[in-house]
Structure formats: structure tokens, C-alpha cells
Amino acid sequence: MSPRRYRRPDDRAVSPLVGVALLVALALVLAATVSATALGVADGLTSPVPTVSQSSGTYERYATGGGRYDEQVVRITHEGGDTLTVSDLELVVDASDACGKTGRLVNLPAEGDDPRPATRYVRGDDIFDNSANSVEGPIGTGDVDDDGEWSAGETAQFRLATRACRVQYGDRLEVRIVHTPTDAVVVDQLLRP
């Protein structure tokens, strides 16, 4: 016969004590989560990505139909979706198919429609025309629509410098508009002359 084990009277109180401690900890975590959400602490952790539901783009080797340029003009039209804050945007042009270069317009909008000095407005390869009035629309500040926003129906245009990057028939250009607070691409246009 095996010896019988007797329980001490204080052994039984351990299980209820552990259960109560776990319930209190769970209640504290739940209360902290609810209060952080209610007070908006979590709001600053992620910013929403604006949505451009539709856009269009054109490249014109020899431009017609107005504008200040006559050669290598790129136009991107915001056709639908959220209004974009221009200072939150960067414009990336991948012309690697045409000339092996990729350039980025930053610190938009460009004052007076002039992306110069290039050290302020261009990152990567400087494939942009940096002459006076070489950007138009919401990405510049010299036009009537320079309210700092890019809304549906508005067209941004810029010119690629023929000295830096000559685009030929059949070359591929990819233009991306990047929302810098979230590093999300909100417009991606593939253009072929």
C-alpha cells in the first residue's frame, strides 16, 4: 500500500490567487489599450495614405497645345481621388530606358516654377530642365492654382532637359508620385513616346 499524501490546508489557495492575478493583469492591459485609442495616442503612429483612384500621363517630344515648353514635356493629370498636399510629394522620373538615369524632384512646390538651384530641388540624376518657368501646375508656385494642393482635374507638367536625357521614340519613361510621409507611391504612370 502506498503512503497517502495529505494536503496542507494552504495549498488550495494558490490556484485562485493566480487566477485573480491574471484577471487583474488582463483588465489593466485592456484598459490601457482602450484609453490610448480614445485619447488619440495611436493616431500619430500611422498617417493615412492618400488615394489617387485615377491619373493619366503624356509625354510630348514636341509639345502642342499650350504651356511654356516646346520639347520633352511630361504632363501628369490627377483625375480622381483625394486632394494631395504638394509639400508631401516627390516626383520620380525613371528614364533608365532612355538615358540610363533616374531623377527626383523634391521640396515641392518649386518657387516661381523654377526647380533651381538643382541642389535644392533635384535628387539623383538631374534630368530636369532647370530653366525659368520649367514646371507648371500644382508642383510650382507661379501659377493661378498654386494653393499647395493637387486636386482632381489639375495637371502638373515639367520638362526633361534634352542635354541631360534625350528621349527617343519607343523609350519608356516611368513617372511616380511619392507621398513622402508614408513613402507610398500614389501615382505610377508608364509613358512611351
Outline of this structure?
The protein is α+β, with helices and mostly antiparallel strands. It is 17% helix and 31% strand.
Describe the structure.
The protein has 193 residues and is α+β, with helices and mostly antiparallel strands. The protein folds into 2 domains: 11-45; 52-191. Helices cover 17% and strands 31% of the residues. The protein contains 3 helices and 11 strands, in the order αββββαβαββββββ. It has helices at residues 14-38, 96-99, 118-121, and strands at 52-60, 73-81, 84-85, 89-95, 101-105, 122-124, 135-136, 149-150, 155-159, 173-179, 184-191. The mean pLDDT is 83.
Entry keywords:
193 residues; 2 domains; 5-stranded antiparallel beta sheet; 4-stranded antiparallel beta sheet; 3 helices; 11 strands
Strand content: 25-35%
Largest sheet: 5 strands, antiparallel
Query: Which value, in Å, is the CA radius of gyration?
Result: 29 Å
Principal-axes shape call: elongated
Mean pLDDT: 83
